[in-house]
Design goal:
Distance between the termini: 52 Å
Radius of gyration: 23 Å
Number of helices: 17
Shape: globular
Strand content: 15-25%
Length: 495
């Protein structure tokens, strides 16, 4: 429709359903090293993967071991594993990386300027790749649970795989036997035409399906199929900290009041949480909210363990995402009962899951995090000290700017309490004061709706760590010695 272990065959029979129908007859099945030979030394390589799952494993490692001197541009929809962002960097085979990464090795190489990096909003990225904004798309290397002559079934994420396959002139498919064939029951692949021939996405309900379980492609593109039984490197969520629990409590109290106050939430609430341990902890706090008769739906990027709990408890009626970013235990829970979960869970391409029009249409309440927030309400989500990249902006901007209510949740300090995350002015701006409405820390909720710059300063000082409030008030006083609508003390350092 438009719009671990390298030994294949040693996987657990319980999750190797589908057996012989994973790879259709007559396809160019080969080993990873041979498949890697179709990649040219300076190719743009488009890889599947989002939320650290659903990425190819064996072909990227073969590229890292390639005797040729490669200078690859590697593009993914979201976070991927070490087989890509560690192995290729350490081998010196990666020259450029777009638009999001999560690994220490790739992060260090980018900050040391050994690998060129460019950050983008997720919702726009698939179109930009198809239009050649980051070079001429060469080869797509994607993971699937099954492949035919002109179709494939994605594995644990969809991300921008449909756009990447459409854009590339060559296609390599890794078929992963450790992922259940029944994942196709979760997928809703819908590829839009490019502007100006684009129709609205015909979704009327958040978990409605409008596409296909399979991703179709031009059979002339398929140059190699590689078998693997290597699992994803799943999330390892840390235990919630005391600060996490307090943030969750404050968010819960705020949402309960908002449910009573906000008429758009009277019958239904659509929620979105950012990926990571804090986001997962906040999802877990949902069960303590009294939603009454309202339908509660998740409409976001990543499906994490906390949402499995919410579905099992009957609190969540459905979830739409682009990635199953689960822990090992969470993957096992879903794989063991995937047909049941598929009744309530749908995976979509990232340009649908993050689509600004749909986020607005469904009135999403989005909860994301940041590195720091300044007294004016601007947020830095990507750079430590304004210079050193963390991961990337991801989908935070898509949701902050377009959702009905944008919330930034973060602990008040970093570095063991030595650094305030509420600062006079952020050294790098990803989300402006106009993009979100509420900031939550373990010390309270700063509701910035309708607040003037001076009022925003007061509200944010109140949710800062007490150890830093006097310094922040001193900055406020210095700023108010100057004229203008926005009080600024220009000669004050960031911290």
């Amino acid at each position: 429709m438009t719009e671990a272990d390298d030994r294949v065959g040693d996987g657990d029979d319980r999750i190797r359903d589908g057996g012989d129908d994973r790879i259709a007859d007559g396809l160019p099945v080969t080993d990873a090293a041979t498949a890697a030979e179709v990649v040219e030394p300076e190719d743009v390589v488009l890889v599947s993967g989002f939320g650290g799952v659903g990425y190819p494993k064996r072909v990227p490692e073969a590229l890292a071991d390639d005797d040729r001197d490669l200078s690859l541009t590697v593009i993914s929809g979201g976070g991927v594993g070490g087989e890509i962002d560690d192995a290729l960097v350490e081998a010196g085979q990666m020259a450029r990386r777009y638009p999001f990464q999560t690994r220490n090795v790739s992060r260090s190489a980018i900050n040391d300027r050994e690998v060129e990096f460019h950050d983008r909003h997720i919702s726009r990225f698939g179109d930009e790749v198809r239009l050649g904004d980051f070079g001429d798309p060469g080869v797509a290397v994607v993971e699937a649970v099954a492949v035919g002559e002109d179709w494939l079934v994605p594995s644990t994420s969809i991300g921008h795989t449909p756009s990447f396959v459409a854009a590339a002139d060559r296609l390599v498919v890794e078929v992963n036997a450790t992922q259940p064939r029944l994942l196709e029951h979760v997928h809703d692949v819908y590829l839009r035409d490019l502007p100006p021939n684009r129709d609205p996405i015909p979704l009327e309900e958040p978990v409605e399906r409008v596409g296909s379980p399979k991703l179709e492609f031009d059979p002339e593109k398929l140059v190699a199929v590689v078998e693997t039984d290597r699992p994803d490197d799943p999330y390892d969520f840390r235990e919630p900290t005391e600060a996490d629990d307090s943030i969750a409590d404050n968010l819960r109290t705020f949402l309960e009041a908002e449910l009573e106050r906000n008429p758009t939430l009277r019958e239904q609430i659509c929620l979105q949480f950012g990926v990571g341990s804090l986001g997962n902890a906040l999802m877990g706090a949902l069960s303590e909210i009294d939603f009454g008769d309202r339908e509660v739906i998740y409409f976001g990027e990543v499906f994490q363990d906390g949402l499995l709990d919410a579905i099992d408890e009957g609190m969540l009626s459905g979830a739409s995402a682009t990635s199953l970013a689960l822990s090992l235990e969470g993957q096992e829970r879903l794989f063991d009962d995937i047909e049941r979960y598929a009744e309530d869970v749908v995976l979509r391409p990232a340009d649908v899951s993050n689509n600004p029009a749909l986020i607005d249409q469904f009135g999403v309440v989005g909860v994301n995090s940041a590195v720091d927030v300044d007294l004016y309400g601007n947020a830095n989500a990507t750079h430590i000290g304004g210079t050193r990249i963390v991961n990337g902006i991801g989908g935070g901007g898509d949701f902050n700017r377009n959702c009905r209510l944008g919330v930034i949740a973060l602990p008040s300090t970093a570095a063991g309490g030595d650094i305030s995350r509420i600062v006079p002015t952020v050294p790098h701006v990803d989300h402006t004061e106009h993009d979100h409405s509420v900031v939550v820390t373990e010390y309270g909720v700063a509701d910035l709706r309708g607040a003037s710059p001076s009022e925003r300063m007061d509200a944010l000082i109140d949710v800062a760590h007490p150890d830093f409030r006097d310094d922040l008030r001193e900055y406020r006083e210095q700023a108010h010695e100057n004229d203008g609508h926005v009080p600024v003390a220009a000669d004050t350092e960031f911290r």
